[in-house]
Amino acid sequence: MQLPDIDEEGYLIDPSAWNEELARRFADQENIQLNEDHWDAIHFMRQYYAEHQVAPDVRHVTKHLAQRLGAESRNKVFELFPYGYVKQACKIAGMKRPRAWSTG
Questions:
Q1: I want to staple 32 with a disulfide (CB 3.0 to 4.6 A). Which of 11, 27, 90, 102 is the partner?
Q2: What Pfam families does the record point to (predicted)?
Q3: CA 32 to the chain's CA centroid
Q4: DSSP letter string over the chain?
């Protein structure tokens, strides 16, 4: 598979070029083994992006996971993506790097 265009930090330039194989490749680069909860967060992010044309804020993903997994899972997104929502979750989900956010 040929890698689509990415920026200097490794984020997709065109989020519509994303697919699950690419997500697995990005996850491997981040040393993340994708499981059901990762895919749930990623698919939620992709759906949100399709509806709003912008990456969801981490609070939206946190709320989504809490609705599915229960309130005790409030920090689940940070367990799934320990080096940061923007650095890992946004990259794996094929979002452009949100410029107004920190990498944490």
A1: 27
A2: DsrC
A3: 12
A4: -PPPPB-TTS-BSSGGG--HHHHHHHHHHTT----HHHHHHHHHHHHHHHHHSSPPPHHHHHHHHHHHH-GGGTTHHHHHSTT-IIIIIIHHTTPPP-TTS---
Q: Which domains can be identified in the chain, with CATH numbers?
A: 15-92 (1.10.10.370)
Predicted TM-score (pTM) of the model is: 0.89
* pLDDT tens digits in sequence order for the chain, 104 residues long: 677 999 998 999 999 999 999 999 999 999 999 999 999 999 999 999 999 999 999 999 999 999 988 878 878 999 999 999 989 999 999 998 876 654 44
